[in-house]
Amino acid sequence: MILSGGTGTRLWPLSREGYPKQFWPLVTARTMLQETAGRASGPDFAAPVVVCNEAHRFLVAEQLRAAQVDGARILLEPLGRNSAPAIAAAALLLRAQSPDAVLWIMAADASIKDTPALHAALDRAVAAAKVGRIVTFGMKPTTPETGYGYIEAGADVPGAAGVQAVARFVEKPDARAAEDFVAGGRHLWNSGMFVATAATLVAELERHAPDVVRAVAAALEGAQGDLDFVRLGAEAFRAAPSISIDYAVMEKTDRAAVVPADIGWSDLGSWASMWDVAAKDAGGNVAHGPVELVDSSGCYVRSEGILTGVVGLKDTVVITTEDAVLVMPRDRAQDVKLLVERLRAAGRKEATEHRRIYRPWGHYEGLIQGDRFQVKKISVRPGQKLSLQKHFHRAEHWVVVNGTAIVQRDAETHLLRENESIYLPLGCVHRLENPGMIPLTLIEVQSGAYLGEDDIVRIEDTYGRA
Fold first, then answer.
1. MF terms per GO, please (predicted)?
2. 34 and 169 assigned to the same domain
């Protein structure tokens, strides 16, 4: 089971609510979601259950397809309710089919370097899960990190070699306590991964968080199939308490156990942790993208396209995207969330959205915006089409620059090739389709008194948005 509901704001401006860090290739050429799914591939694993929010459903489906992950079940949360309701949804779904099924619950956005060691730890966790335990993975701390929760390991679990009972959980200690934990050797970082049978999870949720189970069970009862997705009932799910699995169950249950593991784990929760896990040059720098560094050391510099030069900096983070730049000392990495909160309060769309906006059919990005006009680049994947729609406040002019387009304009149908264009007057009913085998790219020029994205009346839509 993969939890993919996070927004990853501490990796702003790369990770934003509209396209968070699990969908980015942060460590390898594969995205974090694809890396996570890849750890559970092979004959010993069933197809994953992924829980994500409504807005990301097509991103999840497309990235799993690209990674050749077949048969995934994607549960859609109508709104975020933290990890306990998300886990309850998958556990209830699977218990109805196979109560003894063992669930391996993972966040979609963690980095793990040693997959064989992970699978060895997983084998120990599965043995404990089969005797009724809920097992978490405890990472041996390397630094007195205050941004992680800690687990104090207790006595060995009978019948499960290499597994210990959990003595207690400690939520994000202060610096002094974290130093004591590292020195003492009995405390482990809480990785947020869990292993248990579906029956055990549901039983402990019913025991310690009955309101969660009641609401989620009703949401599953009212669930509807939508293409490859299972859409949970919105009204029932909204009634679920917003609570983590740690608070709802793990800190209360007498079945909690931990597998100590050394697997090269990081939650990639800040730009400082990104520097920690990356390969560095002789000066201790990490450079990603078109970056040039001169007389700098200990820096993490990443550019998503714009040439970024750094001269004479030390222990600094510089992140350049198409519409925002972040510069800060590396030891202030946790404070990015303060900046994002300020941007939200100011109503800046850069806090949550990238210039490139993803849709089920492809994506678009703004190029120029002026008084009563704007220019966008639209890319439509092969075989996909936009909704049949109209606008009350704007006209549009489309110019095809790559591929082939079928355009429906009121009662007419037009086939456009490269360097051909069409005008869509205000109020006309229109639709764009890519019938070809390569991506369709066009330039859209909008003109009118109001150019907001909410000026769309969908008449018919392949993706259920009408």
1. isomerase activity; nucleotidyltransferase activity
2. yes
